[in-house]
User: Fold these one by one.
Assistant:
Number 1:
Amino acid sequence: MEYLTADEIKAQKQSEIAKRYKEYVGRNIQDFFAANIVEKYQAQVFGNAKEKIKILDYGAASGVFANQLRQKGFKNLYGLDRADYIDKDKKTAFTEFKLADLNTDKLPWSDNFFDIITAWCVFPHLENPHHAIRETFRILNPGGLLILSIPHLLSRASIQYFLKHKDFARYHPEKDHIAVFTPGVFKIAFLKYFNMVNMEYFIDPRSLRGIKGKIRKIILNISAINKHVKNYFEKRWGYNQIWILKKK
């Protein structure tokens, strides 16, 4: 999908985008990958407190992710997006759903309100991610978690593409990724406000198809016995980085 400003979306593309997002389930969300990440680190940081934990999802889109969390036993689920793309039957998963522009708006919650905020490939799409980072810091409880995904620019496939095309594949002019987070930029933008808990990789299931894909899958399964070996291959083949950060 091509990049559009907020004004362009409101003026001419809203119905088209609404149709797309009502049916959209991002790769991180498929097969409960994102929900499993949240469950894992919620238990690690907060213990057995699913029903009490307040979770806000940026870019709620079709609402599928919130419904997955509801199935896992989370109750206090909040959603935020630039427009409402959620069908009525999925909206019941939310305690509250609100509209705001992460680029410019003061978010409609008080300071230190949430325990966990999730942003699945949201920050790379923002014109002003730094404003959104500061607002995230404001509304997140001290010690609360920010769980986000960004494109893995240093994978083998990404580097090979860059060397050939002098650009990153996910930042092609026909795409709508506009904020680039190199390791240095990520450190400046995020780690001023947050401490790192962990970083994991999402491997696109498409890369596990065919003969080469089956070989990769076997290697990943075998490497699971050693975390350093596993990390090496996930870094090599990862599609997204999943950052788990804790508010300072």
Number 2:
Amino acid sequence: MPCLDDLVERIDRDFDREHLASFWTLEPLLAAFVQHQHAAALVNRELQQLCRDPSYMGDWRPNQLMLHRGRGFALSIWWFERERRYLHTMPYLGYYVPLGRDPLRCTRYALPGAYDNAVFDPGLRIERIGRRNVQPLQILPLHGDRDVYHFHVDRPVPVLKLTTAAFHSLEWLFDRDTGYAVQANDSELSATQLRIAAYLLGQLGDAQSLGPLQGLLRHRHHAVRWAAIQGLGWLDADAARAALRQAVQDEHPHLRRAAQRTLDAAS
């Protein structure tokens, strides 16, 4: 019977982070873990800790209990309490397993062929594929690289989630009625934190922040690179102009256009 430590050890052994397709070999391990009710035992243990020690925090979020956050993957229990206003892309591959008495109902949509996660395009539209009812303890594979899922919630459903680390920089939101893209958010909290830090450093105006901001110009997320340029604009005009001239050759089209517009306006 694979307990949590055994499951984590086997995932570490079998999951090759450099080849995401190996994630799909993990389903039998997860199935054995679920069938032996280990998730319930882990929640019971957490509740006992909370009762014994009022200062115990655990790894709880408003709607989830994080069971393990490992190298390239995470295992958690989520509480699906209400439907989302928009349909969200998933920046990871995953397995969802409903744990309660009710099925997990979902509608699956296909991302368009022109979809490029890093370059948001409000003209793109998802297409409905079909619906599925996932019975309790059954496993739903989630192909975040090609599909979007709408989870229908009549009443709360606890769901065990095994997911890879994010491999896309953005999480797109699509309108539930029209299917068109409406906005995109950072897929990782660290990117949002870095953007906020860049704005803050620029506002504080400390010359010691010049080096850290210039370092962010090489970040893989285009929004972080742009935030660094904006921070430099408040801190050092010459450094900001140099960064803008470099950004007009950036690999991301949105950043190239923003840099060119800013240079044109300044001239």
Number 3:
Amino acid sequence: MFQKAYLIYCRIEEVIVGACFLGVVGLAFMNAVLRTFKKPIATADDVILLLFAWSALLGADVALRYSRLVGMDMFVRHLAPKMQKSVQILVFIIMMAAMMMFVRYGFQLAARNWSRVLNSLPISYGWVTVSLPVSCILMTFTSLLKIKKIVANFDDDTYNFKKDNPDFEGGENNSENIEAKAE
């Protein structure tokens, strides 16, 4: 049940990220074209700012889930499989500590910015800044799930945590596996 709900959550998050990104690209392009005719969209910059903040930060959670964040493995890939997993767990713990600081101070920043409105829209700037702590909470959850998976497969030297993602057969969000387990 949890896995099926998690799969639905993942797909919804991916759709939101994609829609926000398409909105940024489409609105920026349309505004650029309209500026050549001296008819720019007055609210475009603020809408782009809002959509970009959410797409970039929610997109970081999607990238983390798919093991697509920038990483340096020149040293780690030469270690034994169990040592690689230990280093990855340590990296996730450090990331979660940083994300918890972003959550704490991000909500404080959003609260301070809540009375500030965007330049051309009657929307609080807090909606832009709250994207950081919300996304960090989601990335912390994703990191915990990744750690759980690494720990569960710690003794299996054939398990590669970098390939345990939705792109690969048997990955954490593989819909066939989740549906089979749910039945």
